[in-house]
Design brief:
Two copies of one chain form a homodimer. Chain A is of the alpha/beta class. Chain A has three domains: 356 residues, Rossmann fold (3-Layer(aba) Sandwich); 209 residues, Thiamin diphosphate (ThDP)-binding fold, Pyr/PP domains (Rossmann fold, 3-Layer(aba) Sandwich), CATH 3.40.50.970; 187 residues, Rossmann fold (3-Layer(aba) Sandwich), CATH 3.40.50.920. In chain A, 37% of the residues lie in helices and 13% in strands. Chain A contains 28 helices and 22 strands.
C-alpha cells in the first residue's frame, strides 16, 4: 500500500460541478424521502396538491438528525466511488432511521431485499407507509435496515461497534457518526480509546464523525454548548486530530465537508500505508476525527408559528406537528418538500433519476449493500483443534482437581494460533486471573500506546483485547461477530451486569435477524464468567452475584443459551459447541479455581450433548424404582456440594435411595414448547420422576429454577437452593453455608422432603446441624485468618464426615 | 464568603518543618498499617524479629494503590486542619481498602465505632487480623469503612458519587480519587461532565485527583501510557484546569502535593466566593483537577528476586508473595516495614504518637468521621404535601382516563417547592416526555454550560437533573441520598438496564449497612419507569423490555420493593410512601400515556396499603364460595386487559364466577418468611383461594410470578401471562396480542383452566379466536398507518365486543 496520490486527494477535496450536482441531488433526494416517511401516506411525488388526507394519522420519526446523517452518507458514497474504499456506516443517532432507510432505497439495495418497496411510485409509497407502522419498520435504524450492524435504540455503542468491526479487517473503513446526545453517555465517552488498541497494519480504520447539531430531545447538549476549544481539546486528548466543518450554507457545506473528508481519508491511508510497509515508528497514530456542526433539522422549516424550530430541540422529532388540522402547517410542509425539487430527483415512474443514481457506488461497495453489514455472509468457520486433546484425565469421579479454565485457555491458545485473522478474546484485564493466560503464548495483548521493557505480553501486534471496560469488551465483540468473526468475552460474573443491557440489546438484534431471511447467521456472542459469585470469597459481597444468568433467561429461546459445566472436560465440550454455533447468546459459567473433576472426556461429551443426566456413580439409585429423593444440581460449586451430600447420605443412611442429576444446559429444564433445548416430557420424567421431591442446588438465584420448571409435572416439588444474596469476605465453604446450600443443608433438605425415611434419618439431621455448628465455631475461632482456599473447598468430603 | 487570604494559601502550599514532620509521620503510619493488614497475624509492632509464624496463611489485599491514597488523605487532612474545610473522601481505587481503614484507625474513628479495634497493640493486631478474613472486613473500601459512601468493587462511579454528594451541599468538598484503571471505564469517562451541571453557589465542589500510577492488575493503563500532553488536553477538554504532581522523592513530593492542593483549593474557593456574592459571570467555571503521578507500590520493595516490582503491575496486590516460605522475602518484608520507623509512629502501648495524631483534624472534621458519609445522620424528612390533594376524580372505575404520571409531576413540583435544598429529580432528557414537566414550573434544568434565548426551562439555578446518561443520573442520586437527601430517578424501562449493575451494587450497599448499627438509614433510591415495555409501541423492540424488575427481584427482601400502581391515585399513594421510606430500592413502574383510572383516592390508599386486593366491581365473584377462576394482574396495561377480560366473561358467560385480584406491591406475593411485605397465608388464600386456578397477567416476564409464588398453596395452578419478548413497532393493543396477554387470551385462559364451565364457554372461546383473527386482519389491512394510540389502547372494551 502506498500513500494516496495528491491528485486524487485534490479531486476528493474539490468536487467539480458535475460531481457537486450529483452529490447535492442525492442529498436532496434522501431528505425528501426522509420527510415522506414521516408524513405521507399518499401522493408521494406531490403529483397533486398536498391535502390533509395525504398525511399519516400519527406522525412519528426523527427529522432533526436526519439531514446531517444523509449529508455524511452522500459524501462517503462519493469517496467510495472515487477510491473504491470499502466502508460501513454506523449511525449513532440511530433514531435517524428514515435517513438510512432512504439511503438504502436510493442505492437500490432496499428494493433488492424487499421487492415490494420498488424504485417507483408504488414502491415509494410503500416505503413511506411502512415507516413506523404496525407490520412495517421501526423508526430507528434497525436490523431491518440494510447496511446496518447497529440498532438505533440504546445510545452509547456506536464507536465500540465500529472498532469491533474493523479489528482484523484491514480494508474496512467504519464511518461512525456520534450524535451529541449519545456523546453524553458514559459508554460512548469511554469508547474513544479504541484507537489505543488499534493496529494500523492488520486492523481497518474508524473515522468518527461527531455530529454536533446542538440539541437532544428537549434541551441542549453539553458538547454543543461547551467552548469549541474545549471540544477540540477533548478529542485531541482522546488521541485524535480534529477536523472541523461548520455551517448551513449550500453548496459551501458540500465543499467544506468534501475537503474535510478528503483530509481525514488521506490521513488514514497515510497511517495505514506506513504501518503496512513496516515504516511505523510504533507511536500510536493520531487518527482523524471530523466534528460536524450543522443545525438540527437543517433544511427544514426555520420557524413554525413564529417560533424558531430549525437549530433547536423543537426539530428533534416532527417539526411540523399540526399538518392534518392546520392549513398553514400543511402549506409549510408542501413548500418544504418542494424545496428539494423532487422533479429533478425522481422520474415519471418515481424512480431516482440518473443524476441521483450516479452518485451511488456500485454493487457491494454501496454501504447499504456491504456484506460487512451482513457478516454471516463473510463468516468462515473457525479452524478448531479437537477439544478432546485438552482433556483432563479422570480416573475416578471427584478424585482429582484441576483449574478447568486453564484447559480452556490452552484450547483458545490453539484457536488463536490456527485462526490468526478471525478469533479474539475480550477481557477486562483478567485473562491471567481467569487462568486463560495460555493465549499469551501465541498472542500479546493489543496495545498501541507506549510500551516499556517492564511490560509482559503486550505489544503492537497483540490480538488479545484487555481494557478495563466491560462496555468496550462487549461492544467490540458484538462488532467483531456482526462482521463475521468469532470471539469470547470473559469477565467477572458480578460485573457482567455492567454490560447486561448490551447483552439484552444484542439478543434482541439476533432475534430480529432470525425473522429476516436475507440476514445470514453470525457467530454467537460467547460470554464466559469465570470469577463466580461463589468463589469471590476474598473480594467479598460486591463481587458476589449471579445476575447475568437471570438476564439471559429473560431472552427468547431462539437466542439464549446458559451452560454450567461442572468440570474441565464438560467446559471443553461446551466451549467447542459454542464456538461452532451461530447467532446465539451463549453464557458459560464456571469457576477458575482448582476444582474437582468428575467426568472423562467421553462421559463429558455424552453428558453435555444431552444437557443433563443422572450421575449413577454419585447416587444410590439402582434404577429399579423411583428413588427416595432426587438431588439435582447445576453449577460447579453446588455440584460439589450435591455430590458430597449424596456421599454423606450413602454412608450414613444406607437404604435411602438418592439419585443425583446434573444439569449442564440450563435450558433443558424448560418445556420443549418454550425452548428448543427443552427436554422432552419423557426424558424429564426419566431424570426427575413425576412425583419424587427434588432438592435442586443451583449456581444462580433459586427463583430461576422455579421459573424454568414451571409446567413440568408437579413443579411444586422442586426445593431449590442457590445464591440468596448472602455474601461477604469469607471462605468458599462458608459461602455455601451462608446461602444455605452446603452439603449439610442439602442432606437436611433431602431428609425433610423425602416421603420415606429409613431409621437414622433424625440422627443424621442432628449430625448435620452439629457439623454446621462446628463450622460456625470454626469461623469464629479462626476469625482473623483467611485459610487457603484449598483447605476449605477442595477438601475430601469424606474426611469432613 | 470571601476569597482565601494569600497568607493561608502560602501556609498551605509551603508546610513548615513541624507540619511536614507530622504529615510524613502520618503517611508512614498509614503505610505501615496497610502492610500490616496485608501480612501480619502477630507481632504487629515488630517488637520481636519477624518470623514466618507472624505471617498470615493467605495474603490478600492491594498494596499498589495504597500509598498514593494515603498521601492524598494526609494532605487533605492537613488542609482541613488549617482551614476547617468540610470534606469527604471517595476512593475510586477502592481495592485500596487497607489504606482507608488505616486512615480511620489513625484518626480514632475506627476504635470509636469498633471498640475492639482499639488504639493499642491488641487493637492493632485485631485491625490486621480482621482484614480480608472470614468474619472480618473486605479487602475493598466498603460499607464497614467509616467515612466511606463508596464501595470499592465495581469501578466507574467515584465521580458520580462525588457530584451527587455535593449537590445542594454548598459547604462540602468531595475529594474524588480516580484510579487509572477506573479511568478506562465508560461510566467514569462519562462522569467528568458533572461540572457542566454544578452550581458553585448552591452546590459544593468536587476535587478530582487522577492518580496515575501506571498499571492495573496485569498491565499498563491507557492514560498512564499516553503522552502527558494528551492527558492534559483530555482534562482541559472536560473543562478542568490541570494541576500536575509527579515523582517519588520524599519530602519533595510532600512539598509539591501541598502546593498543588493549595492551588486547587484556592481556585475552588475563588469560584465559590464569586458565585456566592453574585459576581459570577455565568460562564461555566474551569474547576481544578490534580493529576498525581506516583509509582505503583510507592515506598515498597523496588525489586524482588531481581525483578522490578515498584512502579509496575507486579505491586498491584501483594508485592512479596513468598514470605512464609522464602527467608529472603521475609527479610525484605521486615526491612520494608521498618523503613517507616514504626517506633516514631506508635508508642509503647501501640497507640499512635502525638506526632501522628496532631496531623489529624478533630471531631466531625476527620474525614473518617464526617456525618456526610453517614448521611442518615443528616437526613431530614421531606416536607411533603398531602398526596390526596392531587387525586384524580374517579366516579366509576374504568370510565375516565388520565396521564397518571402527570399527577406525580404535580406532586413533585410541590415537593421541589417545599424542599428547595433536599429533593431532586434525575432523568435522561425525558422529564417532559415522561409527563413530569410540572416540575419546571418551580425549577429549571440544571445547566452550567452556555444557555441561549431559545432554551426553555434551563438555567444556572436549575435543580432538575437531565443528562443523557443513566449512569450519571443513577450515580448522582446514589451520592445525593447517601449524604442524606431525597430524590427520584425516572427513566425508560428498557434502558433502566443500562444502570442495572448500579442498582445491584447500591442494593448491596444498603443491605450491608443494615448490619451496621452505626450506619443511620438513608433516603431510599426511588426509580420510576414510565416509558414501559408495553407502550413503547412506536420506538419498537429495542425499547421494549421489563428487565429491571427481574434484577430488583434478585435482591434481598431487606432492601427491594417493586410497585406496579394501576392508576394515578395508586401511583400517588405509592410515591408518597416511597418518598417517606428509608434505605430501600423502590422500583415503581407505570405508563405515562393516558390510561384508565379505577380507584378513588380512598380506595387507592386502602389498596396500596394492603398491597393487593380483590376488585369486587370488576368480577362476578359474590364471595359466598370459591370463584371458578381468579384473574390476577400486576401492572397497568395488563390490569386493563384483565378488567376487560372479566367484563367479557361477565357479559358473555353469565354464571361463571370470576374474581379479579390486583397486585400493586409485587413483594406481597412472596411468602412472609422470605420478604417482610409477603402477605400472610391467610390473606393469600383469601385472595387466591387454595385450589382455584389463577390466570395471572403480569407487566414483566412471566417467570417472575412463578418464582414469587413458589411455596404458596399449589403454586402450579398459576398460569402467567406477561412480556415474552415479542415486540416491534406496532399498536399498543397488538403488543398485548403478540405477547399473548390480550383480553381475549385471558378469557381463553380462564376457560381453559377453570374446573367448571357453564354452557357457552366453547362459543366464547371461538368468539375470542375470531376477535384475534379480526385483529390480525386489521393490522395487515392497516399495515402502513399507525393509528393514534388512543384508538387502540383506551377504547371502551365493551364496544370492542
Amino acid at each position: 500500500m502506498t500513500t494516496v496520490a495528491p491528485d486524487l486527494l485534490r479531486t476528493l477535496a474539490e468536487p467539480d460541478d458535475a460531481d457537486l450536482a450529483r452529490l447535492d441531488a442525492w442529498w436532496r433526494a434522501a431528505n425528501y424521502l426522509t420527510i415522506g416517511q414521516i408524513y405521507l401516506r399518499a401522493n408521494p411525488l406531490l403529483r397533486e396538491p398536498l391535502t390533509a388526507g395525504h398525511i399519516k394519522p400519527r406522525l412519528l420519526g426523527h427529522w432533526g438528525t436526519s439531514p446531517g446523517l444523509s449529508l455524511i452518507y452522500a459524501h462517503v458514497s462519493r469517496l467510495i466511488r472515487h477510491t473504491g474504499q470499502q466502508a460501513i456506516y454506523l449511525a449513532g443517532p440511530g433514531h435517524g432511521g428514515p435517513a438510512l432507510v432512504a439511503a438504502g432505497y436510493l442505492e437500490g439495495t432496499y428494493s433488492e431485499i424487499y421487492p415490494g418497496v420498488s424504485q417507483d411510485e408504488a414502491g415509494m409509497l410503500r416505503l413511506f407507509r411502512q415507516f413506523s407502522s404496525p407490520g412495517g419498520i421501526p423508526s430507528h435504524v434497525s436490523v431491518t435496515t440494510p447496511g446496518s450492524i447497529h440498532e438505533g435504540g440504546e445510545l452509547g455503542y456506536v464507536l465500540v461497534h465500529a472498532f469491533g468491526a474493523v479489528m482484523d479487517n484491514p480494508d474496512l473503513l467504519a464511518i461512525a457518526v456520534v450524535g451529541d446526545g449519545e456523546a453524553e453517555t458514559g459508554p460512548l465517552e469511554g469508547s474513544w480509546k479504541g484507537i489505543s488498541f488499534l493496529n494500523p497494519a492488520h486492523d481497518g480504520a474508524v473515522l468518527p464523525i461527531l455530529h454536533l447539531n446542538g440539541a437532544k430531545i428537549s434541551g441542549p447538549t453539553v458538547l454543543a454548548r461547551k467552548d469549541p476549544a474545549e471540544v477540540r481539546a477533548l478529542l485531541r486528548g482522546h488521541g485524535y486530530e480534529v477536523i472541523e466543518v461548520e455551517g448551513d450554507d449550500v453548496p459551501g457545506m458540500h465543499y467544506r465537508f468534501a475537503a474535510a473528508l478528503s483530509r481525514a481519508w488521506g490521513r488514514i491511508r497515510d497511517i495505514q500505508a506506513a504501518a503496512r510497509v513496516g515504516e511505523w515508528d510504533g507511536v500510536r497514530p493520531v487518527w482523524p476525527v471530523i466534528v460536524l456542526r450543522s443545525p438540527k433539522g437543517w433544511t427544514g422549516p426555520q420557524q413554525v408559528d413564529g417560533i424558531q424550530v430549525t437549530g433547536t430541540w423543537r426539530s428533534h422529532q416532527v417539526p411540523l406537528s399540526g399538518v392534518r388540522d392546520n392549513p398553514e402547517h400543511l402549506a409549510l410542509l408542501e413548500t418544504w418538500l418542494k424545496s428539494y425539487r423532487p422533479e429533478e430527483l425522481f422520474d415519471a415512474t418515481g424512480a431516482p433519476t440518473a443524476l441521483v443514481c450516479e452518485q451511488a457506488p456500485e454493487g457491494d461497495l454501496r454501504m447499504s449493500a456491504t456484506p460487512q453489514a451482513n457478516g454471516g455472509l463473510l463468516t468462515r468457520d473457525l479452524d478448531l483443534p479437537d477439544f478432546r486433546g485438552y482433556a483432563v484425565s479422570v480416573k475416578r469421579p471427584g478424585e482429582g482437581r484441576a483449574e478447568s479454565t486453564r484447559k480452556l485457555g490452552e484450547l483458545m491458545r490453539d484457536v488463536y494460533g490456527r485462526n490468526p485473522d478471525r478469533f479474539r478474546l475480550f477481557c477486562p484485564d483478567e485473562t491471567n486471573s481467569n487462568r486463560l493466560g495460555a493465549v499469551f503464548e501465541v498472542s500479546d495483548r493489543a496495545f498501541a500506546e507506549r510500551v516499556t521493557p517492564e511490560d509482559v505480553a503486550i505489544g503492537r501486534d497483540g490480538r488479545v483485547m484487555e481494557v478495563l471496560s466491560e462496555h468496550n469488551c462487549h461492544g467490540w465483540l458484538e462488532g467483531y461477530t456482526l462482521t463475521g468473526r468469532h470471539g469470547m468475552f470473559a469477565t467477572y460474573e458480578a460485573f457482567a451486569m455492567v454490560s447486561a443491557s448490551q447483552t439484552v440489546q444484542h439478543g434482541k438484534w439476533l432475534q430480529e435477524a432470525k425473522n429476516l431471511p436475507w440476514r445470514a447467521k453470525v457467530p454467537s456472542l460467547n460470554v464466559l464468567l469465570t470469577s463466580t459469585a461463589w468463589r469471590n470469597d476474598h473480594n467479598g459481597f460486591s463481587h458476589q452475584g449471579p445476575g447475568l444468568i437471570q438476564v439471559v433467561l429473560t431472552q427468547r429461546g431462539d437466542v439464549s443459551r446458559v451452560y454450567l459445566p461442572p468440570d474441565a472436560n464438560c467446559l471443553l465440550s461446551v466451549a467447542d459447541h459454542c464456538l461452532r454455533s451461530r447467532s446465539y447468546i451463549n453464557l458459560i459459567v464456571i469457576d477458575k479455581q482448582p476444582q474437582l473433576q468428575y467426568l472423562t472426556m467421553d462421559q463429558a461429551v455424552d453428558h453435555c450433548t444431552r444437557g443433563a443426566g443422572i450421575w449413577d456413580w454419585a447416587g444410590t439409585d439402582d434404577g429399579t424404582s423411583d428413588p427416595d429423593i432426587v438431588l439435582a444440581c447445576a453449577g460447579d460449586v453446588v455440584t460439589m456440594e450435591t455430590v458430597a451430600a449424596a456421599q454423606i447420605l450413602r454412608e450414613r443412611l444406607p437404604g435411602f435411595k438418592v439419585r443425583v442429576v446434573n444439569v449442564v444446559d440450563l435450558m433443558t429444564l424448560i418445556r420443549p414448547k418454550d425452548h428448543p433445548h427443552g427436554m422432552s416430557e419423557t426424558l424429564f420424567t426419566e431424570l426427575f420422576t413425576d412425583t419424587v421431591d427434588v432438592v435442586f442446588s443451583f449456581h444462580g438465584y433459586p427463583g430461576a429454577i422455579h421459573q424454568l420448571v414451571h409446567g413440568r409435572p408437579d413443579a411444586d416439588r422442586f426445593r431449590v437452593r442457590g445464591f440468596i444474596e448472602q455474601g461477604t469476605t469469607t471462605t468458599p465453604f462458608d459461602m455455601t453455608v451462608r446461602n444455605r446450600a452446603s452439603r449439610y443443608h442439602l442432606v437436611m433438605d433431602a431428609i425433610n422432603n423425602a416421603k420415606r425415611l429409613p431409621r437414622g434419618a433424625a440422627d443424621l439431621k442432628a449430625w448435620c446441624e452439629s457439623q454446621l455448628e462446628r463450622h460456625d465455631a470454626y469461623v469464629v475461632e479462626h476469625l482473623e485468618d483467611m485459610p487457603e482456599v484449598r483447605d476449605w473447598t477442595l477438601g475430601d468430603w469424606a474426611q469432613q464426615g
